[in-house]
Amino acid sequence: MHDIIHVLPDHIANQIAAGEVVQRPASAVKELLENSIDAGAKEIKVYIKEAGKTLIQVVDDGRGMSKKDAIMCFERHATSKLKDAKDLFRLKSMGFRGEALASIAAVAQVELKTKTDDLELGLLIKVEASDLRKQEPIAMQNGTSLSIKNLFFNIPARRNFLKSNPVEFRHIHDEFQRISIAHAGIKFSLHHNNEEVYNLEPGKLSKRIVQIFGKNYQQQLIPCQEETPTVKITGYVGKPAFAKKTRGEQFFFVNHRFIKNHYLNHAVLKAFEGLLKPEAHPFYVLFIEIDPKEVDVNVHPTKTEVKFTDDRLLYGVIVAAVRQALATSNVAPSIDFDTDVNFALFSPPKEAYQVSESDKKYTQFKNIPNSNSSSKNWELLYENAHDEELISREQAKNELQQQDRMLLNSDPHSGHQNSSPNPQTLCIHNRFLLRQVKSGMVLIDQRAAHERILYERYLEHYRQNQGFSQSCLFPSQLSLNPADFDLVLSLKNEIQMLGFEFEPFGKNCIVINGVPPEIGKLSEKDLFEDLIEQFKMNQSEIALNKTENLARSMAKRTAIKISEKLADEEISKIFDLLFACKQPNYTPDGQATFVVLSLDKMISLFN
Asked: Nearest 5°: phi and psi at 90?
């Protein structure tokens, strides 16, 4: 039998490693920024072209590298951060694996310029697909400049999987934002396609937050600080009044390394308990300083997921720290923080490990077309019915479309009578709508039904290539972050098909001149921001084309609220509009819009 196991060549091994380390241009930006920070840079400049597909260049004024180090840094598993396995548990630097540059050089054309302060000349090295192409001395200032050109040029399949430029740049923007927040004492600048996006001067954390997110954040920042023998918490949380309906600016940093952790996010939400509106998400930037031995950062290639030796203790410290901050800022009841904290009091519930990513915001149900359907039949409902048995949705759809008017006698002594002028349709708790059919009863979730109706309406706008808009009496200006501004411009035609009329107005700003007629009294600025946030959320969770994503996002953001009271006419129209849909059974994301309760099952409840 022939031997079939062999060792992969280095260039293939590096390309495989690149699949883990360099998932997209933003991954390369993150690795280069971390290397510059570890080099002690005081100023870091980032230049991007075509969302990193054409060029990623990071220039710093750090220590630079010697000739040997400049060549060795492109070798796989070459690192200056580790000498033995024990070092993994006392890491305080950013990059440490020794795979980043080797992986990047395997899938791009890389140019490295570096100089130390003890040498008169620097060194230029060019590497392409892991091959050393050029090495020569050059004149340059102290520090390092590393350029990555034509990422994935030798792996077309990987390059084809990259998203559009606005999407890829948004990922770069997010990485740049996180690292610049974590290192407020360093000067950062970001340029995209020769335009300056950020120019951040060094300073305090509060100054950096305002530089990135805007001056309106000055009035909402609450200092947060708590220290125990094992962990120290510092940073800022936002005032509850400024909480948003979407997950926005929420940052955790462990030893200045950004992490994602739903468990710790739940701790913050628990501290805000009773202070936030339903489904609101607070702003926070929290730094966790902990002994490196107590945290494992080598869990995931992106290093954004970590493990703690005692996450329950950390949960309790975060709850206490945020509650204290809120109390001392007069936005929460005062607590005696001089006494020892019993962290058992802050033990997280089981659902803390399963924090929902859903984000809901709805507006009023308006402008429903008239319907010719009518009925004079009605029946009494009872509140305690349970264990309903579902029957065929298709059968119920057909029965409703045939307008079955089976008469049922009512109990004249019952106090539960329908006040609706259309006695065939009943509204229960301003949430569910009920109508009888031959097989039993149809129960509709009015919010889910409205979302399906709007979704198909917006898709029809795209099919007809026209949207309906109403002019704003007073146009509104909306400031966006650079990544969202680029995203909005790339979606301009598709957004206008939904009914928005807007134009660019200065740097990272638009003016909204018209809005869809369905939004009612909702703020056009809030709805536009929510639409973009929902679009990005959908984009990160499921694969959709632009028009379907926008139709879904708009329907979710403009559908009526849960338990919102509707006019009598609107109640009856939901049925007709829902069952006129091509797919009335479910919302776009799969939630049932109605159920059917069989007559036999209802009779059995009383036998």
From this structure: -140, 30
Return the half-sphere exposure (C-beta side, CA atoms, 13 A cut-off) of residue 606: 6
Identify the pLDDT of residue 404.
37
Q: Label the pairing between strands 131-138 and 143-149.
A: unpaired
Token reading at 562: 């849960």
What is the pLDDT confidence band of residue 562, given thresholds at 50, 70 and 90? Answer: confident
Query: What is the torsional sign of CA 329, 335, 337, 343?
Result: negative
Q: What integer pLDDT is reported at residue 364 of this predicted model? A: 38
Say if CB 295 and CB 255 are below 8 A apart: yes
Task: Please state, as a whole number, how many other Cβ atoms lie within 10 Å of the Cβ of residue 604.
Answer: 11
Domains and CATH numbers, the chain: 10-200 (3.30.565.10), 205-354 (3.30.230.10), 360-607 (3.30.1370.100)
Tell me what the mean pLDDT of segment 68-87 comes to.
67
Please answer whether residues 439 and 598 qualify as being in contact, where contact means their C-beta atoms are separated by less than 8 angstroms: yes
Q: In the predicted model, is pLDDT for residue 182 greater than 90? A: yes
Q: Please report, rounded to a whole number, the percentage of residues in the chain having pLDDT higher than 90.
A: 35
Contact call for residues 369 and 577 (beta carbons, < 8 A): yes
> Half-sphere exposure (CA, 13 Å, Cβ side) for 366?
11
Sign of the CA dihedral with 531 first, then 584, 603, and 422 last? positive
Helix (H) or strand (E) holding 123: strand 122-128
Encoding tokens for residue 77? 């598993």
